[in-house]
């Protein structure tokens, strides 16, 4: 038995039933730490997506979920959140096995999932409409209604967190959800669905279809019964999802990655900055959409920042996820090949390697390990400074003046997150306004991952916002009512 949580990874949740894929096929899940087969999951397809969408629609039109008030929905979500906390250690273990992240990072994700449910449980009955000043003889007002059936296609790097921020908000607004997790990492999503079911989430409110992106994911994106899509993943796949949604003219929230900079000025508090400069790049083996992959440093402190970051890199320990070291493996053999290619490009380009972490001696030979690497003196136009690597690789880029920092920071196709390290208050605000991205952090990075903070990007990082109260607006539509009473 893979888990103490009573779920079978070979089954999907549709309505109130756990069932095999309609075609009867399964797919293997790989353990990134040693390359072994961890479990088998159902290979869902179009027929399973049809059934899940029908179950969600039934839950809205005829089931208990559709009859619940906002207050009742909030209480259910809060109960699910409490159940997640009770199972946090087991969820952390599953996430470590499935994704390859160290145990403490997996536990942090489980607690974040619980916090999302707590936040959206409390927010469910706080979404209010307005009364609008209008002509004499009229009363005009607005209120928000759920889209209906929402599709959620989540990636393999942070399954629990992204389920929390998208499914949690969608359920709070009264939608019914069809969730398609990435085929590389499904265990915590399936375990969560079982926990939610046991905690009292009514049948059909949450349906989970596992399988390949090009099969189950494509069928879900193109389904005529879907009213809104939330997608987190690559730019290429996000474009396909948006094109499929356009055929049914339904809204889409896209979060598609980034090439996020941390900008360090000469007057920065380096002692405060240093942990963020490194950790934001190597957390989850760098497989984070908002990873700080570019460290943009003013020349007056460039050498010192490089030296101090290099010391930290050389002290990192890399090994199996359950060993709970600093860095685990990347998710798959394919991702290992992608990151290794970029490291080869760095070597072939003659870029100096400022430091590399070491793999622990007892790391299994079959694991997908990449040594975290700090690359120095990278030209701002180089591929390593422009393209999303999605691995534990950070590049150092020097700059001279504030205008140069802005140009470099904005000089990619992405615009998700940025950080600015400076004691100058005027510069803090100038930079915050000048940077083209969805979030700017001043003298911090990530602000502790607060669920209250709207998250999303511009340019090729996508559009729409999740997290915080803003997500509730995205998972609802606004209705205007004008009453002529004389």
UniProtKB/TrEMBL annotation:
The protein's name: Aldehyde dehydrogenase family protein
Catalytic residues of the enzyme: 255
InterPro entries: Ald_DH/histidinol_DH, Ald_DH_C, Ald_DH_CS_GLU, Ald_DH_N, Aldehyde_DH_dom
Any GO molecular function: oxidoreductase activity, acting on the aldehyde or oxo group of donors, NAD or NADP as acceptor
Residue stretches making up the Aldehyde dehydrogenase domain: 18-481
Matches recorded under CDD domains: ALDH_AAS00426
Family annotation (Pfam families): Aldedh
Keyword terms, alphabetized: Oxidoreductase
Family: Belongs to the aldehyde dehydrogenase family.
């Amino acid at each position: 038995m893979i888990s103490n949580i009573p779920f079978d990874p070979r089954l999907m949740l549709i309505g109130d039933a756990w069932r095999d894929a309609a075609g009867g096929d399964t797919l293997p899940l790989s353990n990134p730490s040693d390359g072994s087969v961890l479990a088998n999951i159902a290979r869902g397809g179009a027929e399973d997506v049809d059934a899940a969408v029908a179950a969600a629609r039934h839950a809205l039109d005829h089931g208990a979920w559709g009859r619940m008030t906002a207050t009742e929905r909030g209480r259910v979500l809060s109960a699910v959140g409490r159940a997640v906390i009770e199972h946090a250690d087991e969820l952390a273990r599953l996430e470590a096995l499935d994704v390859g992240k160290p145990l403490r990072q997996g536990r942090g994700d489980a607690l974040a999932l619980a916090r999302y449910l707590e936040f959206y449980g409390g927010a469910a009955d706080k979404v209010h409409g307005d009364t609008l000043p209008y002509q004499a003889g009229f009363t005009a007002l607005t209120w928000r209604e759920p889209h209906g059936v929402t599709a959620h296609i989540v990636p393999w790097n942070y399954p629990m967190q992204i389920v929390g921020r998208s499914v949690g908000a969608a359920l709070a607004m009264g939608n019914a959800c069809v969730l398609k997790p990435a085929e590389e990492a499904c265990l915590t999503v399936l375990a969560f669905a079982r926990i939610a079911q046991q905690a009292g989430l009514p049948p059909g409110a949450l349906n989970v279809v596992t399988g390949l992106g090009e099969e189950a994911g494509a069928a879900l994106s193109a389904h005529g019964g879907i009213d809104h899509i939330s997608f987190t993943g690559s730019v290429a796949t996000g474009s396909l999802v948006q094109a499929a949604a356009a055929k049914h003219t339904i809204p889409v929230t896209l979060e598609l990655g980034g090439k996020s900079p941390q900008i360090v000025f000469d007057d920065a508090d380096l002692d405060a900055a240093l942990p963020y400069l490194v950790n934001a790049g190597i957390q989850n083996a760098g497989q984070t959409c908002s990873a700080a992959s570019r460290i943009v440093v003013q020349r007056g402190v460039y050498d010192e920042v490089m030296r101090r970051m290099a010391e930290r890199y050389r002290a990192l320990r890399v090994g199996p996820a359950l060993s709970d070291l600093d860095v685990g493996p990347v998710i798959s053999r394919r991702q290992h090949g992608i990151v290794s290619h970029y490291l080869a490009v760095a070597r072939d380009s003659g870029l100096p390697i400022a430091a590399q972490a070491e793999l622990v001696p007892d790391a299994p030979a079959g694991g997908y390990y990449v040594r975290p690497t700090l690359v120095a003196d990278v030209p701002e136009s180089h591929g390593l400074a422009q393209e999303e690597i999605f691995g534990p690789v950070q590049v150092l880029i020097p700059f001279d003046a504030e205008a140069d920092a802005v140009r470099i920071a904005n000089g990619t196709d992405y615009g998700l997150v940025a950080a600015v390290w400076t004691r100058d208050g005027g510069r803090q605000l100038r930079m915050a306004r000048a940077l083209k991205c969805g979030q700017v952090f001043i003298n911090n990075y990530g602000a502790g991952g607060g669920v209250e903070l709207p998250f999303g990007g511009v340019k090729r990082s996508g559009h729409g916002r999740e997290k915080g109260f803003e997500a509730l607006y995205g998972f609802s539509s606004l209705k205007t009512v004008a009453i002529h009473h004389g």
